[in-house]
Amino acid sequence: MSVELFRAMLRIRMVEEEIARRYPEGRMRCPTHLSIGQEATAAAVGLALAPRDLAFSSHRSHAHYLAKGGDLDAMILELHGKVGGCTRGRGGSMHLSDERAGFVASTAIVGNSIPLGVGTALAQRLKGEDAISCVFLGDGATEEGAFYESANFAALKSLPVLFVCENNLYSVYSPLSKRQPAARDLCAVASSLGLAARRLDGNDAVAVFDAASSAIAALRQGAGPVFLECMTYRWREHCGPYFDDDLGYRPDGELADWQRRDPLVSLRAALGLSETEAERLTRAIADEIAMAFTRAEAAPFPDEATVFDGIYRTELDAS
Ligand SMILES: Cc1ncc(C[n+]2csc(CCOP(=O)(O)OP(=O)(O)O)c2C)c(N)n1
C-alpha cells in the first residue's frame, strides 16, 4: 500500500514539475495552480476513496484529479485546450471534470464546489448508495459563506461528506494572520458547525491515509460529516509555474523549512525504498508523462463550429 502511496505522490510531483517546465512555452494557455509540496494529502485521500465515491475540487485540482484515478492523458489534453481533454478542451486546468474517475467538478470560484459536494451527498443518501462525497477545499474557502451553509446542512442531515481542507497557510499572497482572527482554530469552527474535525500533518501521507480511511469507513456506516484539516505548504507561486519567494509575502526561511519536510522524501525514507526501486518508478512515470505531452501537442483543437456546445442550451423546452 505505502509504495502505491509513494508512487501516487511521485506521479503528481513529476506531472506538475513537467507542467511547470513546459508552461513558459505557451502551449498551455489556461491559468494553472500547482500543488507541488502538497501532494501527500491528495494522494492519501485519493487512495482511501473508492472508485464509486465522488470528488469535488477547486482551482488547484490536478493532484486531486490524478489521485482520484483521473486520466493523465485527458488532463494534459485539457490543459492544452485540445479535443480529448477531460472537459473536451473547454475547461482548462481549473475545470477538470471526469465522470469515469468519479471526479465531478473543480471550479475557479473559491468555495463554489463545496455545496456541489454536499448536494451530491444528499442525493447519495436519498438513493441509498454506499458512496460518499469528498470535497477538497483550501483554508481560504473556509472564509466563504458557502462553506458555512454547506457544512451546516451536511451536519443537519448527517450526510456522507468528507471535507478535506488543505491548509497551506495562504490565500494568494495573504497569510492566515491577515485574514482570520489570531485565535481562530479551523477545527473548532468545523466542530461548532457539527462536523467531526481533526487536524493532521498534511505532509504525512500515511497519517492522512489512516485518518481518511477511518473517516470514510464511518461515513459509509452513516456517521455524520467529517472535516480533516491537513497542514501543508505550497512551494510555488499561487498561479503559474514559478517560485515567488522573492516577493516577500512569506517570512524568510519559511519555504526552505517546508521544503526540508518534503513529503516525498519522508515517505521514501520511512518505506526504506531503495535507489533502484525509486529510479524504476521515476522512469516509468517519466515515460508516461512524455507520452501524454506528445499526444496532447499533436491533438487537434475543438472545431470552431462547436464553440457553444455544452455551454448554452441550443433549444428551448417545448413547455
Ligand atoms: C469567490 C472568489 N473570491 C476570490 C477569488 C480569487 N482567488 C482565487 S484562488 C484564491 C485563493 C484561495 O485560497 P485557498 O482556498 O486557501 O486555496 P489555495 O489557493 O491556497 O489552494 C482566491 C482568493 C475567487 N476565485 N473566487
From TrEMBL:
<dbReference type="GO" id="GO:0006086">
    <property type="term" value="P:pyruvate decarboxylation to acetyl-CoA"/>
</dbReference>
<dbReference type="InterPro" id="IPR029061">
    <property type="entry name" value="THDP-binding"/>
</dbReference>
<protein>
    <submittedName>
        <fullName>Acetoin dehydrogenase</fullName>
    </submittedName>
</protein>
<dbReference type="GO" id="GO:0004739">
    <property type="term" value="F:pyruvate dehydrogenase (acetyl-transferring) activity"/>
</dbReference>
<dbReference type="InterPro" id="IPR050642">
    <property type="entry name" value="PDH_E1_Alpha_Subunit"/>
</dbReference>
<keyword id="KW-0560">Oxidoreductase</keyword>
<dbReference type="Pfam" id="PF00676">
    <property type="entry name" value="E1_dh"/>
</dbReference>
<feature type="domain" description="Dehydrogenase E1 component">
    <location>
        <begin position="8"/>
        <end position="302"/>
    </location>
</feature>
<keyword id="KW-0786">Thiamine pyrophosphate</keyword>
<dbReference type="InterPro" id="IPR001017">
    <property type="entry name" value="DH_E1"/>
</dbReference>
